[in-house]
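Milestone M4 deliverable, item 7.
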Amino acid sequence: MTQLVKTGIAGLDEILHGGVPRNNNLLVEGPPGSGKTTLGLGFIYHGAVDHDEPGAIVSFELDPVKLLRDAAGFNWDLQGQIDQGKIKIIQTSPAVLLSEFRSDDGVFAATLRGMGARRLLIDGLTPLRLYAEAHAMQFREDVHLLIEGLTRLGVTTLVTAEKDESMTGVLAHERFVFDTIITLSREENRRRVHRRLTVMKSRGQDFIGGSHTLRIEPDVGVHVYRRAQSRPISLYDQPTSDERMSTGSPAIDTMMDGGIYKGSVTMVSGISGTGKTVLGVQFLSHAIASGHKALLVSLDEHPRQLMRNALSLGFDLQALVDAGQLVIHYESPLELELDVHFERIVKLVESGNVDCVVLDSIAVYEMTSRSEVADYLYALATFFKHRLATTLFNYESPELLGVSQISEELKGSHLVDNIILLNYVEISTMLRRAIAVPKVRGSRNLQITREYAIGAGGLLLIDETGCDVQAVPQLPFSAYYGLLSRSPSRQSPAVEEAVAGGAPMPPDADLPLEPAA
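Output delivered:
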């Protein structure tokens, strides 16, 4: 009884910690279109093909021809398994099946014993209830009869049941007699269909609770994607490193007290056009040149466009991809499902031994599910940290400083080790770019704002050391007003004097760019 039976459903056995105890009776309930029959077919088919466990399918309503057609849609050779005697389809009625269970030596039991059946699918429980109600019978007694009969047969049985707005599914007492209950749901959000799977209970074992993403995929059938937030979290053995990595810009590294720690997570926040993607490409290109493997997850730009734009700045991403040093993974935000997306990132990182990652942009996660984004980012950050992968989260923020939105809406500032703010500054009628680094854990970062330009080599900070223009003195707070607004102001004597006297304005400073890395 302690032996676990693998369901064969992609992802489900992981949630069940290896499978279900043998001879458990499983109930799979859900509304129409949620994947009940497909899951049941996969349970029987993969049991026969992958685990050499013959199985039988009992159908009350669905014609065997349609079952074969549905199986063929997933490239499952159900007919071939039937011809080998490993699978049998039995079309019957609730009355006949219940009468068979009242006998120890009925035709049904003999059929299962004759083929050596280890698995059974009954699709579904709802016709049994309707039969009982039509004949003024106690459905509870029929369910007990069904469970007792299945126990005598010694098979692991999966029973499906309808559940929609007009039917509450299986009643509480009937649910109690099943060993394992799996609930499927199907809902539409912004005209997109989302399916979920939840293991409500499973006697004799532990499992991963919560709502997991379910998809019906070609050549696979039902594929369950484990809830991203359920990844195991180790609190005491998280790897850390004293090694610093360059952002790709020596000047930014100086602002960050020597660069970013290996295995840290950095959030790059700024409004559109400030160079977040450029900095990400700059960081990955430098990391690859230092011998690291890199992953760029693009949720905003298609890889072709990304490569074209990067090449104009001197970054040949195509060559890095061809050399196997860089993986660019693109997913359209229109059909993004967080659990599926997480699983794909995990596989890319693990299979490619990736240790440098850029996600561009995590604002898409917020658009996909505002209620889940904070937990999801925590799951991503935890995964990368445990692999000591140095990560950049690019985030498009419409704010001037970009801090309060990260803290209040995204709730992501506490998840990351470092924060880099990119923004525009309007001087007269000119827009100029500014960078600040308000947070670098474990470092003495420079609390200054630097101007930068975007050119060949990425983000290039402007060198002000040789400028003979007198810098604005740092005065006490008492010399300013508007401190609480985070935009303190004071008069500029030189400008005010020029305006009042009709004299020319002070000349612009000719400031050189730093050399490209």
